[in-house]
Amino acid sequence: MTEHTNTLLGIFPKKIEELKKDGLYRSFVPFSHLAAERGHAVHGTDGAGRVQVWCSNDYLGLSQHPEVIRAQLDSTVEHGTGSGGSRNIAGTSAAHVELETRLAAWHGKERALVFSSGYIANFETLSTVISALPGIVVFSDAKNHRSLIEGILRTGCAKHIFPHNDLDELERALAQYDHDRPKLIVFETVYSMDGDVTPVRAICDLAEKYNALTFVDETHAVGTRGPTGAGVCEEAGENRPTFVQGVFSKAFGTVGGYVAGPDAALDYVRSHAPGFIFTTSLPHSSLDATLRSLELIQDGDALRRALADNVRHLKQALRAAGIGFLDADSHLVPVLVPGAERVRRVARVLFEEHDVYVTPINFPSVPRGAERFRITVPPFRTSGQIDDFVAALRKSLDS
What we know:
CATH topology of the largest domain: Aspartate Aminotransferase, domain 2
Low-confidence stretches: none
InterPro entries: 4pyrrol_synth_NH2levulA_synth, Aminotransferase_I/II_large, AON_synthase_class-II, PyrdxlP-dep_Trfase, PyrdxlP-dep_Trfase_major, PyrdxlP-dep_Trfase_small
GO molecular function: 5-aminolevulinate synthase activity
Strand order of the largest sheet: 4-10-9-8-7-5-6
Family: Belongs to the class-II pyridoxal-phosphate-dependent aminotransferase family.
CATH class of the largest domain: Alpha Beta
Strand content: 5-15%
Catalytic activity: 6-carboxyhexanoyl-[ACP] + L-alanine + H(+) = (8S)-8-amino-7-oxononanoate + holo-[ACP] + CO2
EC number: 2.3.1.47
Order of helices and strands: HHEEEHHEHEHEHEHEHEEHHHHEHEEH
């Protein structure tokens, strides 16, 4: 390399040091989850250590469900390990078509479109739809996920960021514009960092009053909320959102994401979104596993009840132990451990002394001083395991 390129690349070690100095450097611990011991994983490249994982997004434990595993194995034997191309180059399987049809019906929409991830589903759909509507104004909740934020920013459209779940401010912003000017409200139903739930019906009322489209992210709600697990919108009996986004990588226990909505709009996205057109599609086997997960979720009242029972037990145990947490109306239980150094130290003690893994959540994911762990308790967790976890957490906080 030339002296000039060495000088340019020399910027990066300095930036890494800045991240470490500011406590923002991210470390990754290799984990191999164990299907035979749900909630457990071996860690390290040699697989010598074994830990319990208490921060997984696999909310219902379906990634290790024997029927989901069997569906993927059988499909892999029949169809292979990859799709072989993008959706328009031999990469649309019968499983794609079936899954999109069933997702659309599940959410009461005309069409659904499957993407390689939830992030891509948000980013590509939002940026494509917004770019197609001249003069549109977007109203985005201040705590929206980065994928939503980036999808909006990519377009350079006019936008308002309203305070989290502040419907008075949202209405004031909407009222500034002519009734016929294109508008889009973007929000989530369950916010992952605080575990709180958005008043979907009230937002839909405002959208109707001010002639706005809506895009709702149900990432953390599909599978866990609603009579058939279709999310907070289903739970509220609300079918007015224009677009509904969900993922397979959390409660479904597989991989990928999707958006359901109007037929023509998503047909347009299918034909214009670069992240949909120019990427290899998900393998047939993964989608067959997702189809089986969908069946388990739609018939999964018992799973959702067990999840809710575990959340109640966890909160009771935390209260009894004097451990502070955000008591939100969802399956996500944020345990507050203020201080970047402290939350990392407590996580380290849990890991090294109790064989328990939880991810310390720092700035910029949460504000400085609001550091935390986000605890999840899938249906397979026992009361005894929850009590032991809380006892280990209490000891680690006191160390």
